[in-house]
Design brief:
alpha/beta, Aldehyde Dehydrogenase, Chain A, domain 1, 24% strand, Aldehyde Dehydrogenase, Chain A, domain 2
């Protein structure tokens, strides 16, 4: 059965359909999904625009009930939805279920935020005048999400958009439509009025472009590549719309001489290779001071020997396949580039064969890398990491900050002095001490600096900065 798009409260078939394929087993078709046209996208935008006046003035208990019901169903179905996610994206079943739980927690959090909408009452500088400061919804929000977190990222964009009274046109990544379709189906059955949430699956060049071209889309939140993010920005400036971008990362993980070796290795392996390295917060630059360098590299190699790369649904799998053939080719190209640049491939980097046909790649670790190499400058988005040897903490910090990106930055140290200085001076939106660079909570801000992000933060109470606009009202007493 072909899963359809949701437009103005109705499930609409497209003129054609596309298949989602399991990267752990390319013989397994996860599902068939209707591909929306530009006209479908324009119809979805019109429906969202028409639904906005009523939804923006809806009661907070109505919004709370819908989001809470959605959270409850996601959590009740976490095993089923987690398996679907792992089949279509390729992350391990443990990670798939964990991501699904996070999506449920996000909807639960914003259900609560519906009941905590607040403003300010201030005295005026003039006598007998009162001032009220309130937040109001923006209007129609376009949501464009990537393939690497197919249920969590849609959740952390859709939930606040609806919580604050906006209507939504949602385009998920075409590579992983199943999890997104499931979320929309749950929200639809939870009681959302028609037109409030619209799902248009399909090609970014068609559906996404129709969203960018429309003056009736009042805000766009985008997570994806730097190149596409720049196009979203340019189109949004032309329409004077609000936009929010989460793009690339080249996140450093610093290991100092005084680090606990086992803590450092475990954090580095998690940062670089879990979720097959397909996280914008993954660390593919491991910056190690010379006193611990050789011991660290040896321990990393030993730890990597024990990593099981296999079918995402198999018990005991640590790392699933790369998401598709195109991404696998990109990873392989970067491994070749690293060798050409003079880095030493210390471990891995081989294509693997398993019981089922899939896109399996042994995690790769380079040593003897410099921060000028392409493997140290460009986002690879795969299980490929490079170790950069430095003299001391000062050089480590300088190298860590020497990047056009600034999403997440980590350090392994037992020195309170160095940890405190690093938290203050790392040029990143998020800093981790003795923890992986990837792995964040659902109720606190998420976002970066420099080329990684543009606009206000996502998640937690900070989401209100993007999904609302501030109104100041004066009243003569």
């Amino acid at each position: 059965m072909v899963q359809k798009n949701l437009i103005d409260g109705e499930w609409i078939a497209g003129s054609e359909a596309f298949r989602s394929i399991n990267p752990s087993n390319t013989n397994d078709v996860v599902g068939e999904y209707a591909r929306a046209s530009a006209d479908d996208a324009r119809a979805a935008i019109a429906a969202a625009k028409a639904a906005f006046p009523a939804w923006s003035r809806s009661g907070i208990l109505e919004r709370h009930a819908i989001l809470r019901k959605t959270a409850d169903e996601i959590l009740a179905r976490k095993d089923e939805l987690g398996k679907l996610l792992s089949r279509e994206e390729g992350k391990t079943l443990v990670e798939g279920i964990g991501e699904t739980v996070r999506a449920g927690q996000i909807f639960d959090f914003f259900a609560g935020e519906c009941l905590r909408l607040a403003g300010e009452v201030l005295p005026s500088a003039r006598p007998n005048i009162g001032v009220e400061i309130t937040r109001e919804p923006i209007g129609v929000v376009g949501i464009i999400t990537p393939w690497n977190f197919p249920i969590a990222i849609p959740a952390w964009k859709i939930a606040p958009a609806l919580c604050y009274g906006n209507t939504v046109v949602f385009k998920p990544a075409e590579l992983v439509p199943g999890s997104s379709w499931a979320i929309v189906d749950i929200l639809h059955r939870a009681g959302l009025p028609k037109g409030v949430l619209n799902l248009v699956m399909g090609k970014g060049s068609v559906v996404g472009q129709a969203m960018l071209d429309s003056p009736d889309v009042h805000a766009i939140t985008f997570t994806g590549s730097v190149g596409t993010g720049k196009r979203v920005a340019a189109a949004s400036v032309e329409h004077n719309r609000k936009f929010q971008l989460e793009m690339g990362g080249k996140n450093p993980f610093v290991v100092l001489d005084d680090a606990d070796l086992s803590v450092a290795v475990e954090a580095a392996v998690n940062s670089a290779f879990f979720s097959t390295g397909q996280r914008c917060t993954a660390s593919s630059r491991i910056i190690v001071t010379e006193g611990i360098h050789d011991r660290f590299v040896a321990a990393m190699g030993e730890r990597m020997q024990g990593l099981v790369v296999d079918d995402a649904l198999k018990a005991g799998t640590h790392i699933g396949p790369v998401v598709d053939e195109s991404q696998l080719n990109q990873d392989s190209d970067y491994i070749a580039i690293g060798k050409q640049e003079g880095a030493r491939l210390a471990f891995g980097g081989e294509l693997l064969q398993r019981d089922t046909p899939g896109f399996y790649l042994q995690p790769a670790l380079f040593t003897e890398a410099t921060n000028k190499m392409r493997i140290s400058r460009e986002e690879i988005f795969g299980p490929v990491a490079a170790v950069i040897r430095v003299k001391d903490y000062d050089e480590a910090l300088a190298v860590a900050n020497d990047t056009p990106f600034g999403l997440s930055s980590g350090i392994a140290t037992t020195s309170l002095k160095h940890a405190t200085h690093f938290k203050r001076n790392a040029e990143a939106g998020m800093v981790m001490v003795n923890l992986p660079t990837a792995g964040v909570d659902f109720h606190v801000p998420f976002g970066g600096r420099k080329g990684s992000s543009y606009g206000s933060r996502e998640q937690g109470r900070y989401a209100a900065e993007f999904y609302t606009t501030v109104k100041t009202a004066y009243t003569l007493a």
